[in-house]
C-alpha cells in the first residue's frame, strides 16, 4: 500500500512514542486542570509571538516548539516569550478604509523566522497523549457529559468489546463517543463493506452535530464513528436506510422511551408504526445476537417511563443502577512540632516528650533574651539550624540525621464525607436474539435431543472409549495416548470383573 493511502491511526488508539505536529495533545497543569491543544509546527511568528504558536497558562507560556517531538509524559519548562509586535497598532496607509483604530500587527511578525524559545526561571507542565479519560476531563462542553466512572461501567454492562457495533444517541459533547470508539476498535475497515467494530452516533442539534463531526475527523476517528444528524424519536436508527446491526445501545436522551420502539426486532404494534405498515420492517439490531442496552437519565420519573416501555417492547433482565463515585484521599498524617509549616500537617506536639522539649527550648531562649537585654547587648536570638532542604523533601532531625519528609507519619485514607456525585440512573436491559422456526430446526439437527438411546455414563466400554477420544484426544497426541491407556485399564478391570 502506498504511504499516502495508509490510514492515520487516531492518537486516541495509538499515540506513538512522542508528540508530533498536527496531533492532539493534553497539556496537564494539574490533575484537574487539563488543556487540549492541537500541536502546530510554526513556520514563523504567530499572533505576535516571535516563537510561533504559544499556549499561555497560569504557570507560564509554552511555545508549541517546546512541546513538539518530545516523549509523551515529558515535563516541559515554561519559556520567556518575545511578544514582539503583539499589541502594537498598525499605521494604516492614507486612504485605507479599514478599521480607523488600527489592529494588532500580526502579519509583519509572521514574516520573520520562528524564534528559539528561552527557558523561564519557573513554571512547568506535563504533555500527555490523548485518551478518552483525559478528553472527558478537558473537552469543550456543549452539553452535560457522561464521566469516566459511569461510562466504564456502562461499556462493561452493554458488552462493548473489539468488534461490537454500538448505537449511541445523542452524541452531545462526544465524551461517551470517544470511550466507546476505543472499546469497540478492532481495526479500521478497509472499505465500506468490511465489518468492524463501530459506533453509530445520532445527534439532532445541528451545531453540536457539526462540531462533533469536525472533532471526529480531527481525531482520526472517522471510519470508526459514524455520525448522523437525526431526531431519533421520530426517525429511528437506520443509516441510509440500512441497519447498523448493533448489539449494544446507549441512550443519553431526555425521553429514551420515545426512541425505544425504533429498537425493536419487528414492527411495534402501535398506531404510530401502523401508519407505514406497507414497508418491510428493518431493525437496527443484529438479528444473530442479543441486544444489550443502557439508558442514562437524571430523574426517577424518566426511569419509570423507560422501564415501562422496555417491558411492553419485550426487553428482559431490566435493572437500574446508580454509580456513587467517591474520591479517596490518601495521605500521611504527620503530627509534630518539628514539621515545617506545611499544608495538611498537624503542628501540635506528637507526644509528652516533644511538648516538654519544646517548653524547655522556649524557656532557654527566654533566658538568653533576658540576659542579653540586661547586659545591653544585641538580642539576637540564636537561629535554629536550617532544617529545610530547598527541595522540600530531605530534612535534618535535631541530631542532624537526614530523613525524608514524605515518608513521615501514618498513611491515612479518607473518603469524601458526602457523596455528591449523582449524575444519572442507569437502566440496563437485554432484548433476546431473533429465533425463527428454521433456526430451531437447524439447532435440533445439530444437537438432537429426545431420541437418545443411552446415557453417556451407561455406554459400553468401547463406546465410552470412542467418546472420550472424540472429546479429549482428537488432536493432542499425548492426551490421546493417555485416554487410550485409561480406557484399556478400564477394559481389563471390566474383563476381570466378568
Ligand atoms: C446529555 S447530551 C449527551 C452527552 C453525551 N452522552 C456525552 O457524553 O457527551 C444529550 C444530547 O442528546 C441530544 N438529543 C436530544 N434529543 C434528541 C433526539 N430526539 N435525537 C437526537 N439527539 C437528541 C441533545 O441535543 C444533546 O446533545
What is the element layout, followed by pairings?
Blueprint (H helix, E strand, L loop, with lengths): L23 E7 L2 E6 L15 E4 L2 E4 H4 L7 E6 L26 H4 L7 E11 L3 H7 L9 H10 L7 E5 L5 H10 L13 E6 L2 H13 L6 E5 L2 H4 L12 E4 L4 H4 L11 H4 L16 E7 L2 H13 L3 E7 L5 E6 L18 H23 L19 E3 L5 E3 L5 E6 L9 E7 L5 H10 L14 H13 L3 H21 L1
Parallel strand pairs: 7-8, 7-10, 8-9, 10-11
Antiparallel strand pairs: 1-2, 1-6, 3-4, 5-6, 11-17, 12-17, 13-16, 14-15
Helix pairs in contact: 3-5, 4-5, 13-14
Q: Report the uncertain regions.
A: 1-6, 89-110, 379-392
Q: What class would the helix/strand composition place it in?
A: alpha/beta
Helix content: 25-40%
Query: For this entry, what is the oligomeric state of its chains?
Result: single chain
Measure the end-to-end span. 72 Å
Bound chemical compounds:
S-adenosylmethionine
The biggest beta sheet is recorded as:
7 strands, mixed
Count of DSSP-assigned helices: 14
Strand content: 15-25%
Task: Report the principal-axis shape.
Answer: extended
Strands of the biggest beta sheet: in what spatial order? 9-8-7-10-11-17-12
Average pLDDT works out at 83
Rounded radius of gyration (Å): 35 Å
How many β strands by DSSP?
Answer: 17
Amino acid at each position: 500500500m502506498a504511504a499516502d493511502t495508509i490510514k492515520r491511526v487516531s492518537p486516541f488508539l495509538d499515540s506513538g512514542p512522542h508528540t508530533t505536529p498536527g496531533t492532539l495533545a493534553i497539556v496537564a497543569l494539574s490533575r484537574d486542570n487539563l488543556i487540549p491543544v492541537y500541536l502546530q509546527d510554526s513556520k514563523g511568528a504567530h499572533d505576535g509571538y516571535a516563537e510561533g504558536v504559544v499556549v499561555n497558562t497560569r504557570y507560564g507560556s509554552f511555545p508549541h516548539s517546546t512541546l513538539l517531538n518530545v516523549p509523551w509524559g515529558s515535563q516541559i519548562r515554561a519559556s520567556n516569550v518575545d511578544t514582539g509586535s503583539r499589541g502594537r497598532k498598525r499605521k494604516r496607509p492614507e486612504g485605507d478604509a479599514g478599521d480607523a483604530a488600527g489592529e494588532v500587527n500580526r502579519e509583519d511578525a509572521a514574516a520573520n523566522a520562528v524564534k528559539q524559545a528561552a527557558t523561564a526561571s519557573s513554571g512547568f507542565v506535563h504533555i500527555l497523549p490523548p485518551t478518552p479519560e483525559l478528553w472527558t476531563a478537558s473537552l469543550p462542553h456543549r452539553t452535560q457529559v457522561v464521566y469516566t466512572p459511569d461510562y466504564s461501567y456502562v461499556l462493561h454492562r452493554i458488552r462493548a468489546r473489539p468488534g461490537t457495533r454500538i448505537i449511541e444517541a445523542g452524541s452531545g459533547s462526544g465524551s461517551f463517543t470517544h470511550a466507546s470508539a476505543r472499546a469497540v476498535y478492532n481495526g479500521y475497515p478497509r472499505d465500506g463493506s468490511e465489518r468492524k467494530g463501530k459506533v453509530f452516533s445520532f445527534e439532532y442539534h445541528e451545531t453540536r452535530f457539526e462540531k462533533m463531526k469536525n472533532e471526529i475527523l480531527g481525531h482520526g476517528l472517522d471510519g470508526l464513528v459514524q455520525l448522523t444528524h437525526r431526531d431519533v424519536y421520530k426517525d429511528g436508527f437506520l443509516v441510509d436506510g440500512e441497519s447498523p446491526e448493533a448489539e449494544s445501545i446507549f441512550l443519553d436522551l431526555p425521553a429514551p422511551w420515545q426512541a425505544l420502539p425504533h429498537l425493536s426486532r419487528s414492527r411495534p404494534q402501535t398506531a404510530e408504526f401502523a401508519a407505514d405498515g406497507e414497508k418491510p420492517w428493518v431493525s437496527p439490531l443484529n438479528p444473530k445476537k442479543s441486544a444489550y442496552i443502557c439508558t442514562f437519565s437524571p430523574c426517577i420519573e424518566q426511569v419509570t417511563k423507560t422501564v415501562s416501555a422496555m417491558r411492553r417492547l419485550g426487553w428482559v433482565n431490566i435493572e437500574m443502577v446508580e454509580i456513587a463515585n467517591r474520591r479517596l484521599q490518601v495521605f500521611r498524617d504527620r503530627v509534630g512540632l518539628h514539621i515545617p509549616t506545611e499544608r495538611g500537617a498537624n503542628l501540635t506536639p506528637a507526644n509528652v516528650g516533644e511538648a516538654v522539649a519544646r517548653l524547655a527550648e522556649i524557656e532557654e531562649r527566654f533566658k538568653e533574651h533576658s540576659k542579653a537585654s540586661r547586659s545591653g547587648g544585641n538580642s539576637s536570638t540564636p537561629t535554629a539550624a536550617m532544617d529545610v532542604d530547598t527541595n522540600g523533601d530531605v530534612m535534618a532531625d535535631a541530631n542532624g540525621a537526614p530523613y525524608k519528609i514524605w515518608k513521615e507519619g501514618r498513611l491515612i485514607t479518607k473518603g469524601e464525607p458526602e457523596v455528591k456525585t449523582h449524575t444519572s440512573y442507569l437502566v440496563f436491559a437485554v432484548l433476546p436474539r431473533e429465533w425463527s422456526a428454521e433456526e430451531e430446526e437447524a439447532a435440533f439437527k445439530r444437537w438432537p435431543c429426545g431420541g437418545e438411546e443411552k446415557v453417556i455414563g451407561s455406554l459400553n466400554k468401547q463406546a465410552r472409549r470412542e467418546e472420550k477420544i472424540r472429546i479429549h484426544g482428537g488432536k493432542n497426541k499425548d492426551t490421546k495416548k493417555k485416554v487410550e491407556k485409561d480406557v484399556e485399564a478400564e477394559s481389563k478391570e471390566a474383563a476381570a470383573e466378568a
